[in-house]
Each structure stands twice: as C-alpha cells, then as structure tokens.
Amino acid sequence: MTPFTTLDGKAVPLDMANVDTDQIIPKQFLKTVEREGLAKGLFYDLRFDEAGNPKPGFVLNQLQYAGASVLIAGDNFGCGSSREHAPWALLDFGLRCVIAPSFADIFYNNCFENGLLPVTLSEPLVRKLMDEAKGGNHVFSIDLAAQTVMTPSGETVSFEIDAGRKEKLLKGLDAIGETLQHEGEIGTYEYKRSLSTPWLEARA
Amino acid sequence: MSGKTLYDKIWDAHVVANEANGETVLYIDLHLIHEVTSPQAFAGLRAHGRAVRRPDRTLAVADHNVPTEGQARGVGAVADPEARLQLETLGRNVKANGIEFFPMGDIRNGIVHVVGPEQGRTQPGMTIVCGDSHTSTHGAFGALAHGIGTSEVEHVLATQTLRQRKAKNLRVTVDGELHAGVGAKDIALAVIGEIGTAGGTGYVIEYAGSAVRGLSMEGRMTLCNLTIEAGAKAGLVAPDDKTFDYLQGRPASPKGGAWEMAYSYWKTFFSDPDAKFDREIRLKAQDIPPLVTWGTSPEDVVPVTGSVPDTAAIADETKRAQVQRALDYMGLASGQRIDEARIDRVFIGSCTNSRIEDLRAAAEVARGRKVAAHVQAMVVPGSGLVKEQAEAEGLDAIFIEAGFDWREPGCSMCLAMNPDKLMPGERCASTSNRNFEGRQGRGGRTHLMSPAMAAAAAVAGRIVDVRSLA
Which residues of B touch A27 (CB under 8 A)? Predict the structure, then answer.
C-alpha cells in the first residue's frame, strides 16, 4: 500500500451531509474485476447529466478545483454500501485526503486499507476550511505524523487519529503480512476450537 | 465487575491476539462472498502467492447482478458482458480455491443474507463477515456479523481473521404489543428515525424487549439488516427457542450429538443481567405506526398517516436546504400528505424483505385484489428455496392473479445492478433498505416500507395505510 506522510494540495469543498457510497461511485461502475480506472465513475450522477455531459454547477467540474487532492465534505461521509470502490475511485481521481466532521464506519476502515487519509474535525472547523477552500487558488498542507492541517491563511489545526491506524498509513503496512506473523496463534486457536466447538471445525 | 453483554461474549470467544496498537486479531467463523466485492480480493491473493486458509468456512453465491429471469439458461446467457465477466470470475475463483458455491440457477442460490441462515451456515455465537454492508442481517441469530471492504475480504480469505477495534454497546429495547399491520420493518425505521443514520456509529446494537422477542426469525433478520442504516457496526438479538427451532434440521446445522453440544454452547450467548451498556434507547411498540420514508436518507421517516416536512417550519438554514433538496429530488411538495404520493412501481424483495414471511404478508394483502392499472409491480424471492416454498403455498398464483410480476431470486432492484431498475422520475414503493438518490436507478424515487405496505401501495396506486384497505 502507498504510504501517506504529507500532502500539499488544493482542496475542493463538497458542502453536503450524508454523502453515501452510492453517490461516490454508482452501481454501474461496480461491475469491474479491477481496482483501477474508477475515476470516470466518481460522483457520476452529480458530475454528469443524463446525456453524459459535465454539469457546470458541480464543484468537481469547476476549473478552479482541477487537480485538487483534498476533499472537504459534510457529516457522515461515506455512509451506506461497503463498496471499497468508493476509496478506489477517490484515489484514482487524485484525491488523497477527505476532511469531514464524521465518517461512516466501513468507509473509514476502507480508507486505511488504501492509503487514503480521512481527517475528522469539528463541524465549525470543517465549515471554516470549506470557506478557505472556496475559489481554489490555495494550498492546504497536511502532515500525518504531526496530525495537522495547515490552511491557506496559515492557520494550523490539529486532528485526532488512532495511533495504530496512523502508523499503518505512515508506513504503508500490508495488514495481511502483519497478521500472518500470528499464523501460529491462529493455528492454536483453531486447534482449541476443534475441541470446544467441534461442529465448527469439522472440515468438509 | 459487571457482567458481559452478548457482544462482549462473542468478541471474547474469538480473540486470537491483541496487538500493542489497540487492534485485536479476531477469528472469523463464516465468510460469505459474492461476485461484486470478491474479484479484486482473489486477484490480491494471487499477486502475493497466498492461499485461502479455510475454504470450508467460506460460502459463495451469485446475487448482486444476476438477472431475475431466464437464470436456467446459465451465466453464458447473461446479456450484460460486465456482469457475465464477474459471474464467470467468481466461478473460476471458487473452483480454484475449493470453496462451496451456489451458482446462478441452483435452487440453493439467492441473496447472500437469505442463503446463509436458510442453509444453517449462520449460527449463534459466530463471527460472520461479507463484503456487503447488510451482513448485519445475521445478527438475528446472535452472531456478530458485519460488512467489510474488499481489502478485508482478502484479509479474511488469507488469514480467517480480521483486525478489529472493539465497538461500544448500545441496547435498543422495544417493549409492548405491536399494532396490527405493523412489523419488524416499522420497528427498524422507527429506530433509524429516532437516532439518525449516523446515530449508531461506533456501536453494536443489541435489540431486546418483548416486541423483539415476539418477532419471528424473519422479522429479526429484517431488524438486524437495517441496523447498518443507523450507522451501527452490527445488530444482535440473543438466541432463544425460536432461533434453535429455525436452525434444527437445516443442511449445515449440527446433527445428533453435535447438535446437543452446540445447543448448550449457544444458550450461553445472552447479555448478563448486570451487563453495562454504554447507551440505552427505549421504544414502546404501541407507539409505532406503519412508517414510510419520504426523502433520500433512511432516517427520513414519516407515519403513513402523516405529512412530509414543512420547510417553512425548519429554523436551521442548512437543515432547511437539505430537506428542500430531498423534496425536490423526490418530487414532493413541502408539507404534503405522504399518502397523496402516486406511485409507478413496486418492488417486493431484497435482503431486507424477501423471505417467506415477507412474501406471505404481501400476498395476504394482494389476495383477491388487483395492482392499479398504472403501476408495474414485481416480487423477487430471496432465494430459489424461498421461491419454491412460496410456490408450494400458492403465493405465486396470488401475486400473478393480482398482476404482480413473479421473478427469479437476486438482489434485483434494491441496488439495480441488474436489468431491474427505475427510470428517471419513477416513484417506487420498495421493501428494500436504501432510498439514496439514484439507488434504484438514476433519478428514481424510492419510498421504503414493509411488504404489506408495498403490496397495499401496488393496489391503491399510491402510498396508503395498509390498515385502511377495505
């Protein structure tokens, strides 16, 4: 997994609460057996009209936000379906950090599996960051090790993040590789279970 | 020391290792997979030269993008090439890894959260995961069950464990008697309406109280299924005689001496009387009316006798704008009665409401009545076995006689990955779980409700209180 350490980039304000993963990446883009190439489906119904033409009113279509790498959104971002295609699509589009007052659980987990940093800040702070992001001619600086976001006006705000998750992103750890270091314990657990709950361990 | 909750007990029984960083390596008893969220996981295993650790603890179905007609013609006849590729890829992956698979057309195939319980694979005290958010359904059996992403699917395939952080305990107690015409779907919508779609974030919800105990296993599955729509990690109902009766004799249920052992083990899974919950919510069953959603979030609930929000009465500007946006999308006027909303389509199905009891409830309403002339209504059974049972009971004949389309099993128009979808602007009375913008088809307008209410809407041609049908 690509590590996340620091990021300097433009931010795009998406002033919507409860952005669900169906909106982030609609169902017709889930019929793939690949992880790549999903940028074309990101926020599809919001970005494009029924004829497939870009909707000029949507922030991600506005020239001043082209090349943004930070998305600032409302409460409960990523609710709904567990589809990991949502973080895949955000990353494929070039977005590497999402800032919101809160995230839905499965989406939040999925971010850490892919090197996408979800930053949780209070509602007033998110609102302030959105205001600073408007207009597009700016740079936000995110430092995961220091747990800070520096806004274009030079203000530094701190965010909380679980230490284990932070380490995983900083180092780009392979979770499966880490867990396989416990292979002996997994085997012991299965052996004990074959005695205590044998109906679960009877191999077909 | 206070006692343990049901969640605490299941968690404790599955700890393989505790990491210094606060993560626990938790053993997974059952891993359900399907065609949409597994291909990249198998590709990841191949890229790293890793094997599936426990194919025998894994079960595969084809449900999300299968067509709901012509399944006997096989995967080769699936018209959509992308869907066909996913179905074929799943077939190859399960074969290469020795995983049990019910392919499209097999009578045991169906929606993953219908099939697991039906086969007796879902059992009390288990940990169950699937790359699908509605895995919470299996909590109805007192199993800790939740959705995961594709990277985690790969993790479980490789290690049969998951790295987890423990959630907090929330108990929702529903006591009293439900009114006639009110069921599990209404309880679930009442809970979501009460706490909001993010209200359960960070919690595992245990449902308790006499009204929950009174629900059938199917009803409990509906309730736990919708727990994810409240943002919670998982939903749980402690197992009892109804649970054990349901499991007795299922293909994968333990038999003979193993059954006796399992039965004693399962009976230990309940919250101790002195267990401490981080949060408690109480609802009175008699206060719950038949509910429907009016907006584009499952928390947008209203009694069928009520009205959609009046934007003029909302003080908060941001909230008012959100409500207005939802009303505009739904094509509803501020403050209008919800039962004045004329519908175009009806969908009875999904992992929320496609089990035999759901079909019986809908058929009871449809019996001797006709679907309104302007409405197109479809019934999609949750599995081949549900379909067979319904046909043995003559429910298919009732539906067909009333003018419903009787389909083959799958996720169908719940998420519209297959050919079943709403056209822009169409309004649908749906027994599914999400009324998000575009969920059932771009521009489609979804009103969530119970199977009986959806059948009533089909007959009336508009949203209607099922209790008012003559």
Answer: 415-417
